[in-house]
Write a structure and sequence with these properties.
- It is built from ten helices and five strands; from the N terminus they run ααααααααβαβαβββ.
- The longest helix has 22 residues, at about 5-25.
- It is globular and about 55 Å long.
- The strands form two sheets. Strands 3-4-5 form a three-stranded antiparallel sheet, with no helix packed on it. A two-stranded antiparallel ribbon has the order 1-2.
- The protein has about 250 residues and is mainly alpha-helical.
- It binds zinc ion (ZN) (2 copies).
- The site of one zinc ion has 5 residues, from strand 1 and helix 10.
Length: about 250
């Protein structure tokens, strides 16, 4: 996630839950100090804290009756409305877990595994089946389980899905919604079985249809344009993006 994406989520959390949010994050003193500290926790100690979180919080205030005035009469930017719509369905516990993971740098955590030590071939299908479905009914061999468990935080995948309200980053659909279930899936842009790359920048949240199409056709992913190019010339743009950082900002 980019710094601003992280700050936006924290701002949403604070706007919606206000005192409870500060308390949950361990702040008892002044809110100004807390906002400054949150800024530093996201950008690191070498960067001056800025007012981004506060400004974003003011923008989210339109949606919440939290007693602050600020921007309450203004029409929110469409990007702000989009974030509100996706994030507002999370419960307090769910978003708290996500905010804490972001503040603790958990979304960036990576572990690299030396696949040379593993004799059996691990298929992309098995890895993603394991990550996408919590039940153990899929006939996965122990090697896949061991490799994936050692390398991969399933929690990170679950939290990314939450960040998108289980909607597909390409078509923005969530077919499970009207059935009151969530069937969004995680996909590795560079196939995990080849890249062993589990950084968030290599992950997309997709509906089962788009996921299936991508594995069937192996379209090329263009990071600059954030789109897939299929063999027949069709293009699928990434319509929803709350976490990809490639080319967006200097670390
Ligand atoms: Zn889709
Ligand atoms: Zn996939």
């Amino acid at each position: 996630m980019t710094v601003n994406q992280k700050k936006s989520l924290v701002a949403f959390y604070i706007s919606k839950y206000n005192d409870a949010a500060y308390r949950e994050l361990g702040y008892n003193g002044t809110k100004n100090k807390a906002l400054e500290d949150l800024s530093i926790r996201i950008t690191g100690p070498d960067v001056e804290p800025n007012a981004y979180i506060r400004q974003r919080r003011d923008e989210f205030d339109v949606f919440f009756d939290n007693g602050r005035v600020g921007y309450c009469k203004r029409k929110p930017k469409s990007a702000v409305t989009e974030m509100y719509e996706k994030w507002n369905i999370m419960s307090f516990e769910e978003i708290t877990e996500l905010v804490k993971a972001i503040l603790d740098g958990k979304m960036e955590e990576e572990q690299v595994l030396n696949l040379k030590n593993i004799d059996e071939k691990i298929s992309e299908h098995d890895i993603e089946a394991y990550l996408n479905f919590s039940d153990d009914t899929a006939a996965l061999n122990t090697t896949v389980k061991t490799v994936v468990e050692r390398t991969y935080s399933k929690t990170k995948v679950d939290m990314l899905k939450r960040l998108y309200a289980y909607k597909c980053q390409i078509c923005e659909g969530n077919i499970g919604e009207e059935y009151e279930t969530n069937i969004a899936e995680v996909h590795h842009i560079k196939y995990f079985s080849k890249s062993i790359d589990n950084s968030s920048d290599n992950l997309l949240i997709l509906c089962p249809n788009h996921h299936r199409l991508i594995h069937a056709l192996n379209p090329e992913f263009d990071y600059d344009e954030l789109q897939y190019l299929y063999p027949n010339g069709k293009i699928d743009k990434i319509a929803l993006d709350f976490h990809l950082t490639y080319g967006k900002e200097e670390k």
